Amino acid sequence: MSIKGTKTSIELFEQILKDIGEFIITDRTLWLINPHYETKFGLHPLQLPKCFAIIPYVRNFFTTSCFYVLRVEC
Hints:
The chain is α+β, with helices and mostly antiparallel strands. The chain is built from five helices and three strands, in the order H-H-E-H-E-H-H-E. Strands 2-1-3 form a three-stranded antiparallel beta sheet, covered by helices on one side. It is globular and about 40 Å long.
């Protein structure tokens, strides 16, 4: 509930990282079927196709989860 309540889009999260200026995104994985759904519902994880990932509104509609790997900028 608290995650849904924040209403943080992918763009907002990335803009916050940019504004802070201390982190660099080294990897981003967008999921069409969240890996946690395998345990909960028996669905196999599926990454969002790249053709959807480049279009912001489409990406936001179809993404069920996104994982980031960040590193601290020196």
